[in-house]
Amino acid sequence: MCKEKLVTPQVCSCFLPVDVEELMKPPVTLFYELESYADIISKYANSRDDKQLAGELITTSSSCHNYTYANTTEGKKLIAPCGALADAMFNDTFSMQINNTYLIGIRTGLLSEEDKKPYRNPPGDLNTVFQKYAKPINWENSPTMLDEDHPENNGFQNEAFIAWMMTDLYRKPVMRINHTGYYEQGLPPDKYMIRVRYAYPASRYSGRRKIIVSSLREWTNNVLLSFGIISLVLGLAIVAGTFYLRRRELVS
Length: 252
Fold this sequence. Notes:
This protein is mainly beta. The chain contains 6 helices and 13 strands. The strands form 3 sheets. The protein has a 7-stranded antiparallel sheet with strand order 1-13-12-11-3-9-8. A hairpin with a 2-residue loop joins strand 4 (about 70) and strand 5 (about 75-80).
């Protein structure tokens, strides 16, 4: 049971036990799912600029509404990516470990090429290009720092960002296990732990979060099929401005 307190604006980390009873064949992938994701999308889905997401940073669209510009120490700047949907991007993070040793997680290769096609970075050095723009108001980091381990997985082409912007994808991929060495044949039966770093504000979403550990991903007509699933459901209760994080474990 996770009982660590989270007092705004701090974050809370929680460790969840995962019992793998038989070999999970590669690729083993972690997903998250927000129980009330449809409620978030109904508020923010149309607040975006698809031309900007395709690499045309200077937007002339009014579709980003109040999330078009931001005041910075350098004056008023255009936000990239603009819009309420990008601003609301889910930012809890997950990792997996065994015996206090973290498994290597890869945050690329999670989506099909067709899914990634509409999202293109502007030409040039990303750090230089994005310096002229403001990051989304509620983001912790710049779009150029979404994946420090994989420089190509940043900006508008970051796969976690693309998955968030895909409003018809309710189960979002987080990472896949690096299947080398001991894990080459898959995830062996054992007792693992998933570390959840809670950072997503309850003002945006106070419902339950679900973590799914899945093996044997297959893409069929852009529909993700998963076999061998372990599902963890996380509950979030709010008491007098303090977060108490609790989880309930479901294994199927």
